[in-house]
Amino acid sequence: MSSLVEDFVQSLQSGAPLPNQYIQSFTTLTQAIGSLENIAPPPNAGAYAGSGYVTQNLGTLKNALMAWPNSVSPDCRNTPSVIVNWDPALQANIALLQEWAAQPASPARNQEVANAIQQILVILGNSKSVIDATVTGLQTLAQAIGTNGNPVLGIYQHVETDISNLYRQIANLVAQRDAAERKTTVNQGEVNSLNGQIDMAQTSVGVARSWLQILQQARDEFGAAAPAVQYLSGIWSGLQKNLSDATAIARLVQQKPESISSFDVTNLDKTWGQLKGEMQQIASGLA
Fold first, then answer.
1. Is there a domain that residue 201 lies in?
2. Is 31 among the domain residues?
3. Domain for residue 14, yes or no?
4. Are 253 and 260 in contact (CB under 8 A)?
5. Which residues contact 131 (CB under 8 A, 6 or more apart)?
6. Range of the domain at 197
7. Can you give the pTM of this predicted structure?
8. pLDDT tens for each residue of 235-258
9. For residues 121 and 117, what is the distance between their CA atoms, to the nearest angstrom?
10. Total H helices, total E strands in the chain
């Protein structure tokens, strides 16, 4: 477990409030992804050939990142309460295990242990399903955002490259026009054609520059997006590991119900209790 997750878990187990970094991560991702929703093409966008590239890639990016408001953020908010709500049923079966662990082994006692541990494994399995979905959603979102936190950056840089190429094209056209105007016999049609191409290229530069201004806000908003989603992904992967530990203990008991001991039950109770306590802190902190 990373130090980040360890610090988070220790904070929750000490009864401290939910770390502000966890709460702030929601705000950061919501603002960054929301910035894409406000992007609209500049006037006369068709005058810049790269507008199609920009709008297509923005659309693809929006579709990938809409997983945050549609599923990932709700999962991060709701899963803790779901886990906590399953606690009474699991605790009831742990109490049964504690009773049976204190009694001598017998076929009837072993069957009761098996029944109780099966109920516990059902709850742990359901918990695994919702936690796994949350972790997978965060990991997929992290891939969409990228490690640099600026999925808009590639689009922005593409437009910058286009502008550089357009300036070179304009310089070349101006040189051609000037050369045409210096000819002994000036072909005005050629000059007019070159002037028209220069005007078109300059208009294209203007539209491309407008795209840069539009994209800049979204690019800047995503500056902290990658650390935010990586933080949440790390936290939930740690919680996933805690659940896995509880499940491993339960499965050991399932394999040999006749050998159950109070130590096994206490260990299971403690491991699940830590996870449930963490989930309670998250749920109350986000309420």
1. yes
2. yes
3. no
4. yes
5. 79, 83, 236, 239, 240, 243
6. 3-8+20-285
7. 0.81
8. 899 899 989 999 999 999 899 888
9. 6
10. 10, 0
